[in-house]
Predict the structure of NADH-quinone oxidoreductase subunit B.
Amino acid sequence: MGLESMFGSGVVTSKLNKVINWGRKYSFFPFPFVTACCGMEFMATWGSHYDVARFGAEFPRFSPRQSDLLMVVGTVNHKIAPVMKRVYDQMCEPKWVIAFGACASSGGFYRNYATVQGIDRVIPVDVYIAGCPPRPEAVLEGLMLLQQKVDGEDVLDRSKPSLVDGTVYSENHLVHITPPVNTRAEAVVDAHDSQALHKWQGFKSGN
């Protein structure tokens, strides 16, 4: 570049997108929305052994207004779903969502009247981490997938995520449920989690 030849090694030129996205992908402020047993693996992942500080996400925030990464950890039932939606709405922009585990991704084996069959019926999801519970290595892979997604975003023209209407219906009214319309999602799929794998294949095929 011309500036580098003029000023030598003291000047480095780059794109605005690259600089801002580089800062964002290494400074996540996670908000753990823990509802069930996957919380044990969440605590294990955030321990010193796995060194989440490498990703700049080692300090969970417990106020949604100070967070930009919502990690939904565990089962979400119909009574807690409006609370999760309110937490998501209170988070600052830009914000991202990780579905942590089979229950958050697809309802897991709790396919009944009380359980939301995937949080993407209520809020948009960026990364699905399958498993019951997912191992810490899968969680770290999910964080790296989210970093890749953030690194490729256009800062000045960032499209809003596809929003679901936020209404949660019972299993008796499945015909009225707004189908997942989010197309930004990535997934870490456990080969043993057939339900989550089928759900992800549906996203990939556009069904």
